[in-house]
User: What shape does this take?
Amino acid sequence: MEQLNRRAVLRATGTIGAAGALATLTQATPWTWAPANSIPGVGTGADPRTIFDDEADQVIARVIDSGKVVEVNNLLNQWRTNSQPLPAGLPPELRDFIEHARQLPSWTDRGKLAAAVRFNQRRGTYLGVLYGFASGMMSTVIPKEARAVYYSKGGWDLKDRISKTAKLGYDIGALNAYQPDGEMVVTCVKTRMAHAGVRHLLPKSAHWVRSAPEEKPISQADIMVTWHSLPTTVMRNLEKWKVPLPADESEGFLHSWQVTAAMLGVQDQYIPNSWATADSQAKQVLDPILAWTPEGQKLADMLLDLGMDLDLTLLSRPILGALTRFMLGDKIADWLHIPREPVWTPLLETAWGPYVAVREGLLNAGLPRETYWLFDEFLRQFVLFYMAELRMPISIQIPYFNNPN
Ligand code: HEM
Assistant: This one.
């Protein structure tokens, strides 16, 4: 009711336009995905659009309100590996929260995580492009995420945000991701705390309040929507490209993301138990909500200029635009005002499939050698881009201000 009142006022004052009204309708779409498809196979039936992360949110709100965020962030910069003890000097309730949040879910399967490592090793070259571009550009047409990112500190310094998000993509694919000497537990818990910080701060941003239909950002449902822009979108593209994927490796890849969802604070009852159920959830919660927003457009424009500062000629704006069109389709590319690129769009459409087939050893002729090299160099430049992004030690932090613009 409170939400309706606030929106009624905003609408009456003309603050919400057609896009906002549409977003409200979209938000009203009920969550109907059955908990029978989740990891435990049962659930309370609670609507995840109304559930956030009480445990993290309360602790982090108090850290922010106490004015100690910078000090806490500085201390947490020293916490880098999964099994490393926490630095001394953290507020006791934060320490207790982290000690609890760093525990892996009881259903973690080490064998499946080992299969995920094989998947990441063999498919790593595609993953750079897929996480970086398919998932990254898709996030710009997930309205709630686009607004949250644009009006938070992340939108103010997108380059920094890209490096930090790249860290999650890198850490989850590392050989020791969830092993004691890996970094994925730390990355997840820090991300969970960053999200709690965003929940506390964004409702204080006049810009966000004006444009977002919800009272509070990053619900459990929102996290699962974004989750699908990552592993589900990666898997959909790999299948479309006919990359051969052994069943145990694809299951392992799913498992590493199931564990990640849990470590980000998502309740087990919302985490799909198989690729089939993940796809059914994505069809309900991701595909229908994709939409253009002015905030997403600005983020997409910034992302398309990603390679500009580096000497990576194949990561130019027109080529990245063609890649977006190829991976996410004409509708999304048209929303984002990405023109059809005359050389790369047809090249990707006709030659990417044969390139993947040759690369995977399924075909040994039918693709000009120059085209093969060009695509290989393209993938290599993505890897170089990530290496440049990740060359400095990166620590995900609790935000303490919103985008001032
Ligand atoms: C921060 C990943 C879901 C909005 C972050 C960071 C990571 C991350 C790695 C830290 C980067 C940084 O500090 O800039 C993820 C993953 C998700 C997810 C893996 C789901 C599986 C969401 C959703 C929203 C969201 C659903 C919004 C609806 C944000 C915002 C920040 C953030 C606003 C903070 C940016 C800043 O102010 O610095 N997320 N996120 N995220 N995320 Fe997420």
Q: What stands out?
A: The pocket of protoporphyrin IX containing FE is lined by residues 144-145, 148-149, 152-154, 161, 164-165, 168, 191, 194-195, 198, 217-218, 222-223, 226-227, 230, 264, 396, 399 (CB under 6 Å). Residues 251 and 272 are 12 Å apart (CA to CA).
